[in-house]
Amino acid sequence: MKHLFFDGKYLEALKTGEKKITIRIEKPNIRVGDIIIFHAGGKVIGKFKIKNIYTKKLYQITDEEAKLDGYNSKEELIKAIKEHYPRIKDTKEVVIIEFEPIEIFDKEISSEDFAWKGFRIDPIELAKLALQYDETLTEKQKMYLKILIESGSLRKASMKLGGLQKRGIFRKILRKSLERLIEKGIIKI
After folding, report:
1. How far is residue 77's CA from residue 87's CA, in Å, rounded to a whole number?
2. What does the alpha-carbon distance between residue 141 and residue 139 come to, in Å, rounded to a whole number?
3. Least C-beta-crowded within 10 Å: which of 2, 21, 98, 129?
């Protein structure tokens, strides 16, 4: 299942359904109709359905879209985007993703626990085990795991690859290796 990550300040607005869109600089690997797991502030919120995806220039965002994103005005939203992406230009095409909640999880689950099948696993230790025992890894995957180990955290490794949105690359490799390591009995359930 695919995942979208949000700043912790959006946690309650996502849970209540107040936040109905997100504006992204790059299109994530999702399509209309997909059911996605949403995370905010290191917590898993629930399952959301993607209703619509469209693009427009940053300056074309409307007050209505800003309100659907949890802001009071277009100006407030654009200011927040520019604080996060200081070099973004008003003419930059952004991706607007509309969604609706399908299932909000009652139990609080940390994103890290959710990512690793409920195990408390240190991603660095998992990467080391994967390099040692997962013979199905490609050379590129091995290179990514070595970057992760050298960096010491998913965040730092992702930044080396170009930004926090790159965390998914590492998590995908680690999740597949975790499954293989469980199958081999190297990690016990």
Report:
1. 15
2. 5
3. 2
